[in-house]
Design brief:
This protein is α+β, with helices and mostly antiparallel strands. The chain has 5 helices and 6 strands, in the order ββαααααββββ. It comes from Bacillus wiedmannii.
Length: 189
């Protein structure tokens, strides 16, 4: 896998270090001790199994106080940011699969509820706590984003471009676009 951020190549060592730090943080957030393992892939597998062992309500209850704190912070940030938004673009290069197959696969992982999809979604990033289809084209997400000290809960509405500040790039035939909102805000962000 090749990862670049702001034009800088991220080495496998940097990625492994980041994963280990995030795994430790997530285990702490969930009230568990650090895994005494050296293999980062095994650590991610064990963390995913731990998260899969919780029901939605159990996971939500574990995170409830931190979600409340993040909600307060997000409300303040939403007011202070006004209409300013940061743009995020992800380019994915895959061999042996078409763009249409890739986007259909991503949509399937996001919008079709199954234990297998949940396992893939939770193992994709240590900071994922809940990725749950919610309605026809919606996904509930509970994750720690960026450098946030707390997990945040939001909902993605796929295909709804209402209110997006950055329009769809028509030079790409296949894209996953949509807005997101917080449960306490009816406005798509």
């Amino acid at each position: 896998m090749k990862i670049m951020i702001d034009g800088n190549n991220i080495s496998n060592e940097q990625l492994t270090k980041w994963k280990r730090e995030r795994i430790k943080k997530v285990l702490n957030t969930l009230g568990h001790k650090e895994l005494e393992l050296n293999d980062t892939d095994v650590m991610i597998k064990k963390l995913t199994e731990l998260k899969l062992g919780y029901s939605y309500n159990e996971m939500y209850d574990k995170l409830k106080s931190k979600l409340k704190l993040s909600e307060i912070g997000m409300r303040i940030c939403t007011v202070l940011s006004g209409d300013r938004r940061n743009f995020s673009k992800t380019s994915i290069y895959l061999d042996g699969i078409t763009a249409e197959e890739a986007i259909n696969g991503i949509d399937s992982f996001m919008l079709e509820q199954s234990r297998e999809n949940n396992q893939v979604n939770l193992s994709a990033c240590p900071d994922h706590y809940v990725l749950r289809p919610f309605g026809e084209n919606e996904l509930e997400v509970i994750e720690t984003t960026g450098n946030s000290p707390f997990p945040v809960q939001f909902f993605i509405v796929f295909g709804d471009e209402t209110g997006l500040k950055t329009p769809r790039d028509m030079s790409y035939q296949y894209q996953s676009t949509g807005g997101y909102y917080y449960w306490w805000s009816s406005t798509s962000i």
